[in-house]
Amino acid sequence: MSDIATPLTVREVKALDKTGGDTFTSVLLIKRLTERPTKTGNPFLSAELGDKTGTFTCNCFSDNPAFEFFKSLKEGAVVRIEAKVDYYQNRLSPRLLRAEEISTEQLAGSPLMANLVETAPEDAEALWTEFQGYIAAITHPELRATVQSVFDEIGESFRSAPAALAMHHAYRHGLLEHTCHMARVCQAIAPLYPEVDADLALAGILLHDTGKVIEYQGALSTARSRKGILQGHVVLGYQLARKAGMKTKLAPDLLERLEHIILSHQGELEWGAAVVAATPEAVFVAKIDDLDAKMGMVQRLLRQAGENDEFSDRHMGLNAQLLLTKPAK
Fold this sequence. Notes:
The protein is α+β, with helices and mostly antiparallel strands. Helices cover about 45% and strands about 15% of the residues. The chain is built from 13 helices and nine strands.
């Protein structure tokens, strides 16, 4: 592909004139590839492409050479595209003109590589130091030892893992960020609810998503592992906690309550919870988890907003378009 222009980020592409049909080049990561049928039954490929500033989707129909090109690639591959700005139902959906795969070796040392991978906006080292402080803040010895035992096993993976594939905190260090945010909320509002055992709630928060270090895999792009597909992070996290609790001889009642927090933290059965929250601590953790997940979606939409954008695209997790402008005071 000829080098017709400096590659633009997704944010820069979204800032181009929506009606002008501008041509641009970008170096992007393949986030998702989904093959679907058209109304007439012919296949088309939906390719979600992105970098750390955002994503957009290109639709490739079977009579387009790009269809076979993208079908031959896997999620996580890096591509350079030349495309023309186009919108469908008010969403950026560029018309592809050319595309080629770029190897990570070709990108080694290039600033473009750093632009591909979205990371948590907060410093990862500071978050990890903060996280260790939350473990130390658990006053019950065996409960604290149980939590520590889990992170002695998975700590390195946990520090870099995303919190989701797409919905919230879906970027490097996102799981650490999400868990620290939940712990901050827990410590701030736990005094309002004396019925909730603060140690147990904090331990449940620190462990609630640990199964995601097993559920997810991939360096540049995240996908579900075999165990992630067959068991899911709720069950995998329960297994980690149970193994650690047995090792530290955590009292059976406390271990059962801790396991219940993990099994129920998704809030609703249709959202992936194994059971509905049925203890004060489990209800408390599930609601904090939902709050931070939703606010994580809001924060990411605000970070990725263009300078002149008034509303975001409709977000599946929020079931709404987000108003991006600040209140007028």
